[in-house]
Amino acid sequence: MSTTPTINALSVDVEEYFQVSAFENQIDSKDWAKWPSRVRLQTEQLLDLFAECDARATFFTLGWVAERHPALIERMVRDGHEVGCHGYCHIRITNQTREEFRADIARSKALLEDAAGVPIQGYRAASFSVTRDNLWAFDEIEAAGFSYSSSIYPVHHDLYGIPDAPRVPFAVGSAKRVVEIPVSTMRLGRHNLPAGGGGYFRLLPYRVSRAMIRRINDREGMTANMYFHPWEFDPDQPRPPGLSAKTRFRHYLNQGRALDRMRRLLHDFRWRSFGEVYATAIGGGALQTDGGLDLARA
């Protein structure tokens, strides 16, 4: 039996702390300029850590960020990372018409490619907002020139999720030319448990996240992929007033401990970008079907 460790996929959703969906009722986009920008500081902290630990990632970045911090995008590419698209200003697809979504991803993809100097092949929806009601998004993602998406989390959640979606890469869209790479989950009985990072990584003890990844790798024989946000590692970010207790808990929990946990994660497993880890699938390799869930329907 091979003892070569599995190479897992790492991603970062690059957005300002004041652009998260949970704050949209407290901070209007018209007022973003009033809040101090911290995204470059936060992202460079992660870039430094990834260089220290020999990790590479996919940075799903807002076009809004690329427009204001092109040097940050240049550094991602220079450091060997992949740049992906996260839309222009973090609007959930559920709040857009098809025409608005089409214009949004075209604009952000152009901004990111201009800053990065390389083609952008991956897309991730704000707040994993691809649902059964907007599967037309995959046809627009294909038409915009993306090769893959990572916009579905196969879990039950109050804000997102298609819990019965496949847990491994699968073809989507009318022509099935786009690959959807779902965020990692651990199967327990008939349910999927979130194992893909974000707030769950901060909420649960680190040993739980480590055990989940090892089970996905060793028992299930699957590649794991995880996502984070730069603001999750910044306990000094300004705090808007009027947030509910639930939102405060989700957003700020254990931010002061997150960077040390990330360092342990990078040392315990090998991490590369989505484009590297899933190259065969993205290139048209054998993919699982959607299991009759009709997720390819536009």
The arrangement of helices and strands along the chain is: EHEHHEHEHEEEEEHHEHHEHH
| Number of beta-strand segments | 11
Level-1 CATH class name:
Alpha Beta
Low-confidence stretches: none
The average pLDDT is 93
Question: Key terms for this structure?
Answer:
298 residues, alpha/beta, TIM Barrel, 5-stranded parallel sheet, 4-stranded mixed sheet, 11 helices, globular
Question: How would you describe this structure to a colleague?
Answer:
It is a single chain. With 298 residues, the chain is α/β, with parallel strands linked by helices. It is built from eleven helices and eleven strands. Strand 1, helix 1 and strand 2 form a beta-alpha-beta unit. The longest helix is centred in the middle third of the chain and has 19 residues.
Task: Please outline what is shown here.
The chain has one domain: Alpha-Beta Barrel (TIM Barrel), CATH 3.20.20.
Which SSEs are present, and which pair or pack?
Layout: E1 7-14, H1 39-52, E2 58-61, H2 63-68, H3 70-78, E3 82-85, H4 98-116, E4 122-123, H5 137-143, E5 148-149, E6 170-172, E7 178-180, E8 185-188, E9 191-194, H6 199-203, H7 206-219, E10 225-228, H8 245-252, H9 255-268, E11 270-272, H10 274-277, H11 279-282
Parallel strand pairs: 1-2, 1-10, 1-11, 2-3, 4-5, 5-7
Antiparallel strand pairs: 6-7, 8-9
